[in-house]
Amino acid sequence: MQKTESVKPKAESVKLKAESVKQKAIRADINTRVNSFLLLAFSVTLLAFSVKTAAQDSTALYIQQVLHPQEAEMRTQALARLAALQPPAAFPFLAAVSSSSLYLLDGRAVTTGSRSAGQDDRFPIYEVYPGQRQLKDEKGRPLLLPLSALQPVTASRPQRLQLAPLAAVLDMFSADAQKRAMAYSQQGAKGAAHADALRLALQTETDPLALRAGREAMYAVRLQRATDAAAARLLIDSLYQHNGDNATGILRNWAKKPGVPQEAAAYALQQAQRLDSHYAWMQRIQNLFSGVSLGSILILVSLGLAIVYGLAGIINMAHGEFLMIGAYTTYCMELLFTNVLQVQDANWFFIAALPASFVTAGLAGLLLERLVIRHLYARPLESLLATWGISLILIQAARTLFGDLTAVKLPGMLAGGWQVTPHLVLPWNRLFIILLTIVVVIALYGLLFRSRLGMQIRAVTQNRNMAACLGINTKRVDAVTFFIGSGLAGLAGCAMTLIGNVVPDMGQTYIVDSFLVVVTGGVGKLMGTIAAGLGIGIFSKVLEAFFQAVYGKVLILLGIMIFMQFRPRGLFPDKGRIAEN
Amino acid sequence: MLKAKSSSKLATLLFVLFFAVALPAGHWLGIVSVNTISLWGRYFCFAIAALGIDLVWGYTGIMSMCQAFFFCLGGYCMGMHLLLKATALQGQELPAFMVWNNITELPFFWQPFNGFVPALLLSLLVPAVVAFVIGYFVFKSRIKGVYMAIITQALALAMYLLFLRNETKLGGTNGLTNFKTLLGLDLYAPGVKVGLYFVAFGMLCLAYVACRKIVGSKFGKILQAIRDSEPRVGYTAYRVLHYKLAVFVAAAVLAGVAGMLYVPQTGIITPGRMDVKASVEMLMWVALGGRGRLKGAIIGALLVNCLYSFCTSLFPEGWLFILGLLYVLTVLYFDKGFLGLLELLFKAKRLKIAESIKQKAKSHQGGYKYSRQ
Is residue A426 part of a domain? Predict the structure, then answer.
């Protein structure tokens, strides 16, 4: 065990003196050898050898002193020596010290890496001296341990401050890949200050993201040192092709530097320009993608609204609250799985929540239909007021039950994203929402156009009385339609938890938009709803990129009003002349 | 029939007497606090706006969900005037919120609001012009019914979001506040508050009489015809667009007047007054009081707001439950609103009286001749 940190400066300084005496002795020894002319060559080799071994030994010694100091002052001195000597093999160790994440595990000095998503409180473990390497368990998988299994070695703040001048270098040897990537980028931006350390760090780099940043930094450093235009051009091309995060900044800064060849500087600027336009395109694709995913949520919400309105002539202002119910169902599932069933894996609750939110919201819709809406068929304006009242009640009920703000943990399998190119990352959660929407649309299409129930729904939508005359149980059809419509909103709510918080009035933000979708798409039209939902979603995201969100919304509204001037019955109106009223 | 009419007249008279004489008298005798008076003054403003909604919705069948926006337009016009006066009184050049937002000179659209008369005219004109533009495009493309409700609702939302921004230079989320004087009179003096109460009540009576005239005229009859069957009115060569536009603008002006009177009494106007919720609530006043009856609109506005003040002070958590339940119950069971309910009760009573008279007559006759079964 470590000794308690009682301060004994004298003993320490005595030891240090002994140390320097020892070194002096070595030097004296060498001096005597130099006197001998014959042994010159031999002694030079010996000198190199002895200095090297001495350095290595002393590094190990100092590290032992940091890990197990006999007294606190000894650790201070050892760290000071290490900071002065800067032995590369000790960099990972020092990085762990300076970030206060040094631990002992069975006598070995280790540090923790960054947690990957989904793991709860267990970290990957890295041994830090000599060099850095990840520890594996007996099956060869990365070893994961909670912090409680490690014995912390804490250096005091003044002790760590001794390493501050080295911080830029040490970060390149951190066990945290993100930190390393950032340190590399800094090196690239600043120039050739620690080129050797950078090269050394890159030799053992394994993380792809950090490696990208590191390579770019390496190119940048070499570009700084490039003397002739041809070499510079080559490096500019490398930077351009490597397409890193800071490439434009590096190129522009370099071109501004005094003493850079005119032609090469112009070339650098030109390439930077090309990169910029490339990024702008990536940004546009990203915006388009966000638009599509926003559109998919709108579609999910509006589909239910559209079929219910088409069928029953009901303006259901409480439709947004089914979305809210779906979201809270997901939240409850998370609570159930983590607290009651003690499932550690954060994926299962979401898989269970998908059907659960559909069914819960559907049942709530069914109840609403039975109690209230049944009496309002074909009275759209009155139904608007009544369902608004219901939405007030539901929102207030949710607020009383769950409070003002909750959030659902992102399931581990949907964390992160699909990296198409380095500058275009499509988040898994948004991709999942798009996929979900596609599946739902196909299923709904099958239900409406390929099944008996769907035929009945369409018949009642077209002419309620005639359908009843032909023996269709319209009340049953109404109930089922309402169940499906509300369920779809619940599903949308479940999907919403992936990209936002769960708040009692979350449905309200979507209800006006989804009504606009229904109106633009034409009432009761599946295709129209899908087209309008995608259109409005994409437009609002694209407009947001140019204007601010609010102005985008105003513009969309104006666009819809102009659109309605030309097509008052929506995108895909019924053919033929249907008399008004 | 005669009896019913006279009883309704009596009720109206009592209503006017209560608010014009009894309540202020109560204040001067020290029974009613000045805050209560001011509160009722505000309710009258809401009632004026409700009258406009009744014209548009109850009589013409257009469900407009942006009346609160028109209300706020009137309110902001008056608020801008009051704020400029208050700033001048403090010896500053710009209202405080503009200084915070680094605006160096008064925006051009604030300039006309320095004078009282221009501000007064503008608070009528601005809602009218905006309503005209919106109405023209909406009615021209024959957007009606549900589509109309949704479009106007989205419009209200967009305007609400626009007014929330600081770039519109209208005070953003905080709105306009810190008013001091109106025409040189201190807004916080009890006398001025009572005066404003009287102005609001007078305006309400005036608006009611004007609306009654409109509804009774040929114009009003055509409005009701449009409500009952719009195509037929069109077929008989009336320009439906013109009528709808006229009534839409009239309602907007009424809402503007209401907003204009509301602001000096409340001392603040924020975008929160114009969100979608506010518009739906205004519709609810009319539905609750009795749609298609001018008195119903007034009663509904006063009733809901009284209830609001009462409930929020007693159990703030429960107010939304009560309001929601009121919405549902009104629509489901009291289609004709509070006024309809009253009439139903009176009718039942009258029927009972008639029945009992008949019974008495029967017993006098001996009851042997007819037995209606």
Answer: no
